[in-house]
Amino acid sequence: MATAQAIPKIGMILKDLASRKIRSSSTGGNLIRTWSASSITTSSNGGFLETIINGAVRFGNFLISAITSAISFSFTKLWSWIVGGVQFLYNFDWNMSDTAIDKQIEGLWNSFGGILGGAVGRAIGWLGCGVVPAATVFSFNQSLGTHLLKEVGEQALDEMLDAASEVINAGFRMGTQATFLWLYKDVRRALKDPNNIFGQGLRAVLGSGTVDNWGTGESWTIAKAVEDKIESIPNAFWRNFSEEMFEEGSEACIEAGFAVAGGIDAWLAQQAMERNSLLGADRTVEITPDRSAPDERIILSGPEAVLRPVIVQTLATHQMLGNRDVGVLINGTPTDDYITPGVQERRLMIEFREKTAPPWKMPNGKKARRRHITIPDIKRGLTWDEVKLAAKQYTSGQRLVTARLNNGRQMQCYASTENEGIQKIKELLRLSTAEILPNGVRDSGYTDPTPRRRELPYLVYPSKAVLIWRRRAVDLQGREDIAGNTWEEQRIEFDLWPDKEPPTLKPLG
After folding, report:
1. Are 432 and 396 in contact (CB under 8 A)?
2. Are the beta carbons of 414 and 451 closer than 8 angstroms?
3. Which residues, 6 or more positions from 386, have their beta carbon under 8 angstroms from its beta carbon?
4. Other residues' Cβ atoms within 10 Å of the Cβ of residue 468
5. Is the alpha carbon torsion for 328, 332, 333, 334 positive or negative?
């Protein structure tokens, strides 16, 4: 009875597969597909079309990441570019005619068309005859479709990445050559002009005949000139010595350069591996401390070992200070008397809203956003028209612009840019007796990312104003400052959103 022979097994090293290498380089070393759980949920009610679209978007992002990794910088690539450039110049025909240059540029463009067409055809073939049929099968049989997409997708990805890499490398190489040829032709035409000052200097060195005949006659390359120079040596010993020395020296220089570049790349890779083994890979973490405020996010970046304690500290700090005002002064409270230089007798608080007129609600039902700007030391005898003109609309944003004034106080404005904030402060200071100090403007940058301030810049319009007027009190019923003086306060509130002055407005004194 014959014994059945064992079926030979095919050996395969998974980590050496091209698809695994691409995935590892584009995901920071993670070969396993992972996801992070959060309080945000997504709905899958969009059907098969939405699934295909989302998958195509994710595949496109992954393809871009893989191509970026494939064309990433290295010293080996840099040295190869240098060697290629030197060899191109060494063998370049410096006496090439303009017609030959134009034909060579046209030939480069036509050659690139063939490379691009081949890459596009390869991509269309794999998508049209591989991915699309697999996706169609997925709509009828999900298990079989998933298997086909996995099998075909890996090969399609490898093929399209190879095609994209070829197009990018060929485009860069041919584009560089075409640009050099075009510039060389234009520079030579300019130097042959008798009125060109550089051309006149070149004629003084090489002679007018040589410059005028530049681009005509026999070809001239550096390689041919060096070869003719070596062949002109009469002694056979020194001629052979020079020829072999030049050839072997140039080849050894190229090999040594690649060895040095490869050593630098290997050292950098080793340093990165040691750093990753000690501190972990670089990560970017997005934290949402309060689930009820999903727009309030904190983004941290750094190695894993450094991020872990920082995340814990950030959450603890937010929990302790999230609902408290630390170092914040609310406009209108009496605390400003104790930190400003003396009692502020007249100040104007202007409120801006996202809408031009009431009701102060947006079409989506949310309240219109507000901004407040306080102007110190308001002039006497102001009119409603002057306040309306100074408090015109502006673009509010996340940048906090602070201006120090010559009365010891300051003004602040949230604007989209620093220039926008400075311009608005200058417009409102027309209502005040104070002026901005030289070099007194400071851009504090983006403020804490609260839900309201994380939004894009938006236009705000004047809605109302409050004039706070303090006078010395005649009795003891007022507010006493640290110097023992008693003050009484009067508030005049009026609207700014109408086009005309309100008829019941009191004099602004």
Report:
1. no
2. no
3. 430, 431
4. 19
5. positive
